Amino acid sequence: MRRVRAAAATSALALVASLATGARADDLDPRVLYAEGNFVGAARSFEARFQARGEAGDGVSAVLAWYAAGRYAHARALLASVSPKIQPGGKLAERAERVGARLVHLSVTADLAGDPLAADATIRVDGLAPERMDDHVLFDIGRHALVIEQPLCEPFRWEGVVLPDQPVQIAVTRHCDLTGTLHVTLVADRNFFTSSRSIAVDGTAYSIERPAGETSERDVVLQPGRHRLVIAPSGRLVADEQIDVAVKQTVARRYRVPWRVNRLAFGIGAATAVGVSRLQPSVGVGVGGAIDGSRFVMDFDFGRAASLSTGNSGEWFGLELGAHVFQRALWQARRGGALLALDFDPLVVRFDSFQQPATEATGATRDTIYISGAPLRFTAEWAPLQLALTVWPFAWAYSEVNLVGAAPSTSAFGAATSLTLAWHQ
User: Fold this and answer.
1) How many Å apart are CA 353 and CA 370, to the nearest integer?
2) Whole-angstrom Cα distance, residue 244 to residue 150?
3) Mean pLDDT in the chain?
4) pTM for the full predicted model
5) Domains by residue range for the chain, with CATH
6) Which of 99, 115, 206, 272 makes an SS bond possible with 174, Cβ 3.0 to 4.6 Å?
7) Under a CB-based contact definition with an 8 Å cutoff, are residues 202 and 249 in contact?
8) Among the listed ranges 346-350, 363-367, 392-396, which one has the minimum average pLDDT value?
9) Strands lying side by side in the sheet with 215-222
10) CA 76 to CA 139: how far, in whole Å?
11) CB contact at 8 A, 321 and 297
């Protein structure tokens, strides 16, 4: 190898002297540096000239000087950029071709296979920036150490001996922490139905521990990208949305749990009920309260009643009792900030009493009672505010006049509806 380098240096000296022209008097002549054996200094000076002027002669001189300095990989990479400027067929092209053939044997290309590198990845060979040609890394022959560093990743290290005419393939493996965090907060009272306290991200369930206060929190570490978050304790939809998670970013979501999922919830608000049958169609308007939960309901209302047939008004009282057999709604969705649900409760009944004057002359009152069951209830909830429209398709109506000698009481089948606007807490 020493004989090859000595011979190359001798021949290159004559070639450099013939190629390097036009040096300014105030510059240190790179030919002098070369003659003194300062090949690196000469190569840098020639390469600087080439970068400034773009002349092929300076470029080839720089390649020859780097070759003489034993920097084969750099010389080969530089020759690749000089070659397009060399006129074919001349001595310069012949000399460039000759040194290029030698550099192919004295430098080796390495293909970085395996995991793809990010744009901000940094490659070092023996602590320095590597020589590149196309998508390959160039090595001088000999032992080398390659290190690839990338933010948020462990450094990848490779060491090996590079032999002439033996291309290298390096299987790059990355171990990176590119995850982000989804932080979910559930707000509910302390009677939150704990048996189903969990969330689901991309179909995987994550439990939430019962806290001391009224909020439940959970951090879920996720890969960057879009993920689906579903929160449906006891089958009641709280959230179903697509959330974008970025690298090392925390996305926070906060949801209030619907009252229907609580073991116990109290409500107060405005109410109205309508009973329809052939006896005495009536409507009641007033206020009410509720003690509801995930398993049962007790609702009471009172106010004024009016007959839809005669227009007479009186008093109204309503009571709703029953058990929620089905925790999951027939249909549910989230639209904007509202939770929508359609429920069927076969074991819930409602009692409504409408009292209106029978005749103004006698002062007698007509009592009409509706007992309804198996309701379909549509709810729209902006927690803690809830609007509920309930249809009672099955109702038994009973009517009598509280007056001696009045017509006997009668009964019939009908239907009923109720509408409530309540504040649940």
Assistant:
1) 7
2) 23
3) 82
4) 0.54
5) 2-107 (1.25.40), 109-172 (no CATH), 180-257 (2.60.40.1120), 265-424 (2.40.160)
6) 115
7) no
8) 363-367
9) 215-222, 180-187, 250-256
10) 10
11) yes
- Give the Cα separation of 75 and 104 in Å (integer): 10
Greatest Cα pair distance in the chain: 140
Is the confidence at residue 187, as pLDDT, over 90? no
Q: Is the pLDDT of residue 293 over 70?
A: yes
Q: Is residue 27's pLDDT more than 60?
A: no
Q: Which residue has the tokens 């509706």?
A: 370
Q: Which residues contact 2 (CB under 8 A, 6 or more apart)?
A: none
* Identity at 171, one-letter amino acid code: A
Angle between helix axes 91-106 and 56-68 (nearest 10 degrees) is: 30
Beta strands of 208-257 (E only): which ranges?
215-222, 225-231, 239-245, 250-256
Inter-CA distances, 217 with 192, 200, 231, 246, 251, Å:
14, 13, 13, 20, 13
Residue 103 identity (one-letter amino acid): L
The closest of 45, 97, 89 to 66, measured between CA atoms, is 45
pLDDT of residue 26: 37
Q: C-alpha angle 119/125/126, rounded to 5°?
A: 145
Q: Which residue has the tokens 């090392």?
A: 248
pLDDT at residue 189 greater than cutoff 90: no
CA–CA separation, 325 vs 264, rounded Å?
A: 16
Closest CA to 144 of 128, 159, 123, 164: 159
| Residues in a beta bridge with 416 | 275, 392
| AA letter at 279 | L
In this structure, what DSSP letter does residue 141 have? S
Cα separation, 62 vs 16, in Å, equals: 9
pLDDT tens per residue, range 306-341 = 888 777 788 889 999 998 888 778 888 888 778 888
Between 311 and 103, residue with greater pLDDT? 103
- The gap between the terminal CA atoms of the chain, to the nearest Å, is 88
For position 203, what pLDDT does the model report?
Answer: 93
Let me know: does 424 contact 289? Beta carbons within 8 Å: no
Tokens 């509720």, residue located: 290
C-beta neighbour count of 144 within 10 angstroms: 20
